[in-house]
Amino acid sequence: MIQEESFSRQSMAARIEERLKPSAVPWSRLSVVPVVIALLVSLVLPWATDLLPFGKFVLHLLILFFLWGIVVQGWNLIMGVSGIFSFAQVALFAVGAWTSGVITQQLGWSPFVAMWFGPIAATFVAVILGLPTLRLRGAYVVLLTLGFQELFRNFTTQGPNFVAGGGYGLRYVPKFPFEEWVGGDKAQFLYYYLALVFFAIATFAIWRIFYSPIGMAFRALRDSEVYAISRGVSPFRYKLFLFGFVAFFTGWAGAFYVHWYGAISPAIMLFGTTINLLAMIVIGGWGSFWGPIAGCAVLTVLPEIMRAVEQYRILLLGIVLALVAIFAPEGLFPLLLRWVRKMLGRQT
Amino acid sequence: MSVIFECEKVTKAYGGLLAVKDLSFRVEEGEIYAIAGPNGAGKTTLFDTISGVSPVTSGIIRFYGQEIQRRRADDICRLGIARTFQTTVSFDTQTVLTNVLVSATMGRPGTGKITLDFDHDSIQTALDVLEFCGLLEKQDWRASLLSVSERKKLMLATALAAKPKLLLLDEPVGGLNRQERSEMIEFVRRVNQLGITVLMIEHIMKAVQALANRMLVLHHGEKIAEGIPSDVLRDERVIEVYLGGKHREKISGNGGGGH
Question: Angle at CA B224, nearest 5°, toward B219 and B230?
């Protein structure tokens, strides 16, 4: 193994190729065709929904999917990939929303400028929150992060008036000026496209991390922390990067949310939202890349289809979660994927 | 021969309990040095302090003359000291190749920066090491699916992928059957022939005799004998600690100082 260092660069590359099994590698290549197709479809989608009688509502759901999709992917990176049970992701979403919202209300800045301060604030908070989790394990991380979420919810309920709005949270937050640009109906299109850009950037960034040495380090720390450290993985560096990186996009989604709705209520930080997002990750398949995105799509659309049984929604969600946890702990998406591969394999 | 590694009056205390007490020894470049001693003698604790997993209470640890007792564990790995663990560990959910890539990309000297891509050198190192360890064919297996001896080999492979100058082996032949044992002994010899100095904990004396140039015996955190294996194993105190010690300890309630 020592002598081979004298090999030329080219023969070295050849030596690597011939010995490497594609199924063993932790990296992944982006296939251009599906990405281009997905982008094209997403670009024409608003125009397609416009033809439907309830098209506006579909567009609304798509924007929600983009926003929660960002949050869920980030949370999956922390919980599924890195095994850190942080329950403060919705709070970080809220930090982003409140920061950007308050800036536009109090300083009169444009949402386009303010929305960058949301993610910066969320990143800052997340790194501080991440420091103690370097020492804490398991249930204690849950306690700390849940505690923070509760603290921030209380602050946004009972804090100074420009934050809490008398308990209602932020109201009459300046929206993105899309309606002034293109007029009522088509404004939603612009919201859609902006959310799409956010989602695409966040998804690409997370995909890049997921299949990089950084993602490998996260998984190594999750599987066995002491072992990973003894092999050169710095927990300090990687965990703080993880918290900050994820919080940036989570806060970004929050900032978008507040300038889309024009309001945000502290009630968003009640446990229901967190459980909903958790269900997206668990049902989709935590630790996998596409699973949480698929889970997010399903759980954004499904409740709307099941409006008729609205009062049983939480109950059904609970039952599905329990069933998945018992029978498909990896999640449904990886299960489906394996099933499809098996079917394809049988044909050839 | 030059000294590659040195412990000087190393002490590790847990509260009032001294797990390692004023321990000094030197390891020379290229040799295989064994540390033996009964259960609870402080062997693994010593490894934990050397590898930076838990800090020393007092004393100095030198590697190529440089003090390392305050360094973090991931740093120590990149300096060129890699360890294995008594209970076999692996990154269970990852493939064999990925297991080795972790240390090849993060644990080799000169690595450790956060990067977005896997570099050629690391992939090359990982494949070379897998080939050397006979695990290349199983590179796409999940680590958890390997047999016990294969997982042990994989743990060694990840240590080698960090390109260490000093390898710390914690009971390399423990938990293996007779045939696997002799394979492992042969393997450690091959590793040593690559120019890697080996410091190993082992209380299976056959393995120590087969491999070690020198050894020391640890008892209640203290060195009670040091030298070439054939001499040390004839030492009266060593024989007492290994064979007769237990009974005497039970009676006096303290076997450390009374001999």
Answer: 110
Euclidean distance between CA atoms A129 and A122, whole angstroms? 10
Measure the CA–CA gap between B54 and B43, rounded to whole angstroms. 13
Q: What is the pLDDT of residues A167-200, one digit of tens each?
A: 899 999 999 999 888 877 788 899 999 999 999 9
How far does B148 lie from chain A, in Å, by closest CA?
A: 17
Q: pLDDT tens digits, residue range A220-266? A: 999 999 999 999 999 999 999 999 999 999 999 999 999 999 999 99
pTM comes to 0.90
| Residue A276 one-letter amino acid | N
Flag whether residue A171 sits within 8 Å of chain B, measured between CB atoms: no
Instruction: Measure CB to CB from residue B74 to each of A21, A212, A232 and give the nearest one.
Output: A232
- Contact call for residues B185 and B193 (beta carbons, < 8 A): no
Find, in chain A, the residue whose alpha carbon is nearest to that of B135: A19
Long-range contacts of range B183-188, CB-CB < 8 Å, 24 or more positions apart? B183/B149, B184/B149, B184/B152, B185/B210, B185/B211, B187/B133, B187/B153, B187/B156, B188/B32
Could you give the CA distance from residue A256 to residue A272 in angstroms, rounded to a whole number?
A: 21
Q: If we measure between CA atoms, which residue out of A87, A169, A154 comes closest to residue A126?
A: A87
CA dist list (Å): A137 to A130, A140, A204, B9, B99: 12, 6, 30, 33, 23
DSSP 3-state percent helix, strand, coil across chain B (nearest 5): 40, 25, 35
Average pLDDT for chain A: 90
Whether the CB of B142 is below 8 Å from some CB of chain A: the reply is: no
Both tokens of A235, joined, read 């927990």
Query: What ipTM describes this predicted complex?
Result: 0.91
Q: Sheet containing B3-14: which strands, arranged edge to edge?
A: B17-28, B3-14, B58-63, B66-67
Q: Which two three-digit tokens encode residue B159?
A: 């240590």
β-partners of residue B66 are B63
Residues A85 and A339: their CA atoms lie apart, in Å, by: 29
pLDDT digits (tens, 9 = 90+) for B78-120: 999 999 999 999 999 999 999 999 999 999 999 988 899 999 9
Q: Tell whether B89 is within 8 A of chain A (Cβ).
A: yes
Rounded alpha-carbon distances, angstroms, from residue A120 to A124, A129, A277, B173, B215: 6, 14, 23, 52, 56
B236 and A CB contact within 8 Å: no
Read off the pLDDT band of B15 (50, 70, 90).
confident
Query: Do B102 and A208 count as a contact with CB atoms less than 8 A apart?
Result: no
Written as one string, the DSSP assignment of A166-201 is GGT-B-SPPPPTHHHHH-HHHHHHHHHHHHHHHHHH
Cβ-based neighbours of B71, under 8 Å, separated by 6 or more: B52, B79
